[in-house]
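Per-residue structure
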Amino acid sequence: MLYFIFVEIIAMKIGILGGGQLGRMLLQAAANYTVTTYVLENDAECPAAHLCHQFVLGDIKNFEDVYSFGKQLDALTIEIESVNVEALEQLEKEGVRVIPSASAIKTIQNKILQKNLYAEAGIPSAPYVITKSKSDLQHHLNFLPAAHKLAVGGYDGKGVQILNEEKDIELAFDAPSVLEKKIHIKQEIAILVATNEAGKTAIYPPAEMIFDQVLNLLDYQISPAQLEEKVLWKAEAIALKVAKALNSPGLFAIEMFVDNKGEVFVNETAPRVHNSGHHTIEANYCSQYDMLWRILLQLPLGNTAPILPSAMVNLVGSEGFTGAAFYNGLDKVLEMQQSFVHLYGKLTTKPGRKMGHVTILSSNYQDLTHQAHKIKQLIRVESNQ
């Protein structure tokens, strides 16, 4: 006689605020787990919309939309910082797990609060002063050259203005901002730190970021970054100190500057999966996306070690093209050995818009750099309109 035993598996309900490419890749990793996924976004055609179990049309900056969305869930996370923190604070009070915490998001949303946190925690960061308006800069001319950073609302290089001399003040922001002393940068690196609710941490090898000086966007990156051992130890210690100061579970991307003397300074922190961690999908045993699911689902942290060194190239909309996206040269890139193409599912392109990325694996760093430049030449995101 056959006996059938039915075991009910209760899937945790996890929500994501934001439906861009980070949410899309986070949902792709969710397929490996028993979890019911929800996304809140104001665009029904956003990259993540068709990959979740439940899509809710709404504004992630609106209290009622975020609160109504979150109160049905076991846990909530973000793929972008510009969310309604007051709603998250209320949800936390009612027992919803918010990862990262509302307080950590609130601090990172505001560059003034973020810089003050570094100063209070003894975390090395560039010297700074706070300005409330453009006219305040007249009192800090001796601080130039400096970067003027809008306290709230800047992202992907927007909201940052370099002021080299007095005449540049006309470019400054007439709103609360941070005026940050310019550092002579040798390298820009990013380190991902994962922290679970028990306080355990896992740290990824640093990635060196090479920026497009025109768009002020990440052009390509190499990981693990080639750093002197003492610089590596210093950077890892600082990254862990930032994560500890935020006092929250989650995944944090700490962007840092290395100067000519080997000193390390924190630039800024993102409380979420991050562009600088895209390569981990193929290049590390546990991707940043898988790691965040482990934290959300209260599972053990993963192995952050690299499988092979990697380069990651951003695919952004080419100048002069706006409309339905066409990937000119995609076939040539797909023919390349040990290359992995990720398109974000965005229907339209415009100049500078992030449309995808390509990761390359190789044990040879010179080859990685060569392949990254080759990809930049081979593929262009254009429009056939």
Summary: The two ends are 67 Å apart (CA to CA). The domain at 12-98 is CATH 3.40.50.20 (Rossmann fold).
